[in-house]
Write the structure tokens for this entry.
Amino acid sequence: MKFKSESMINGSPEWELDTDSCTVTHRTADGKVSEDTFHTDYIRYHISYTVAKYPERFKRLVNKGEIYKYLDDLETRAFEAESRQVEKWKENDREYKAAVMAGDIMKAAGLENGLKYMAREIVLDCMIYV
């Protein structure tokens, strides 16, 4: 699905969101075209969810020329929230601390990956599927 702005530049929409490729296209009056593709699961899942539930949100953001900033900010906030949560859990996780103190890098990495997956699920529920 493609969302296209009502404002046109040389017969093409000024802003466009291709939800299949997660690509935002922007055209300027001087003929420059920029395309930015989002590759993270956070954005892919959010786009899919929003298209199904709230497509008018993307229509509005594309028309206002705010779609790139919206998706970029969401991606940044999601990664930061995941990182903050993982750090909090690592500070309080006895098994993780013991693995670090013992120099067991493999075990510490495995535990940290588990914490990342748990944090990711929380971020998906609280920030992406909204």
Observations:
- The chain has a mean pLDDT of 97.
- The first strand starts at residue 2 and ends at 4.
- Strands lie at 2-4, 8-9, 12-13, 15-18, 23-27, 33-37.
- The first helix runs from residue 41 to 53.
